[in-house]
Amino acid sequence: MVYKSSLGPTRRVIEATDTGSTACGLSYYPQVAVDNSASIGSNQGTAQTVQPQVPGGLGGAPYYALYAGHTAYAVIDLDPSHSTSGAGRNYDELSVIATTSLPDADTVATKIVEEGGSSGNPYVKAPFLGLYEDSLSAAASSASDKG
To answer: What pLDDT, on a 0 to 100 scale, did the predictor assign at position 118?
Structure first.
């Protein structure tokens, strides 16, 4: 997971690279959870986690073709409203699995912080996750398209 300031302070980039010698098929988008890391695996009640909304109306083949040596990009917007009103700051981790269709795909948990000069946890409110795309600009556009 990468922060790119050009996308704005609430967006994060997820990159999946095929390091093998053959192509593989990913889901339309990665499986993502925005977590309060202190509540994950804790015996202190229910884990605090938020699943992002994803684009609707998907049809056809259930995968994104990722060719050997290439990278697919997906962008998550942690707070698409860009309004801190009603947003939580309990969330400090992004858990990502590139696809559920590959048995050897690892789940990667990455700490997230508020970007843009502030410190602490980011604001999270109704996050939205775009589709895998072959360019960062297309992935950013997909993360803006809730239609």
So the answer is: 67
Question: What domain range includes position 110?
Answer: 5-142
7-40 in b/e form (b: 16+ CB < 10 A) is bebbbbbbbbebeeeeebebbbbbbbbbbbbebe
Distances (CA, A) of 120 to 3, 59, 64, 89, 128: 15, 39, 34, 8, 21
Tens digits of per-residue pLDDT, 16-49? 999 999 998 888 999 999 998 888 776 766 778 8
**147 in a domain, yes or no?**
no
CA angle 81, 84, 89 (to 5 degrees): 115
